[in-house]
Design brief:
single chain
């Protein structure tokens, strides 16, 4: 009797796994996540090139347009891989914690530029005081 229950339970579990296709969902979710990360890395690279004056605004704009197209395509495919509200909230919490610990490249560059402007302003005021 125990063997039959085990067999039925195994069959039911296999049927559930086949119906929900957990492996496909897991792999698809992971692949989409990796594609989003690739876009994020490309954004950081483009921002760095722009701030280093290697990439001008027109080329940056073109690249951002291309990234938006890729992003939209990924979003369409990602709709197939739905996560629960609980998992979504956990992911958002982790992302927000990471963002507070690690400011984006844009935020770092803004702070750096702001400091440079303040230092330049102080330097010009100091030279005015020294040489009236």
């Amino acid at each position: 009797m125990d063997w039959r229950c085990t067999g039925i339970n195994s069959g039911a579990a296999g049927g559930i796994q086949t119906f929900f296709n957990f492996k496909k969902n897991y792999e698809g979710h992971r692949q989409v996540g990796n594609e989003y990360l690739a876009i994020a890395r490309e954004c950081e690279r483009l921002i760095a090139l722009y701030f280093d004056r290697i990439l001008d605004l027109e080329h940056l704009s073109n690249k951002v347009s291309e990234l938006n197209t890729r992003y939209s395509e990924i979003n369409q495919r990602a709709e197939e891989f739905i996560v629960s509200d609980k998992v979504y909230r956990q992911a958002m919490q982790i992302q927000n914690q990471k963002a507070s610990r690690e400011p984006s490249l844009v935020e770092r560059m803004r702070k750096l530029q702001s400091r440079s402007h303040v230092e330049a302003k102080i330097g010009s005021q100091t030279s005015t005081i020294e040489h009236p």
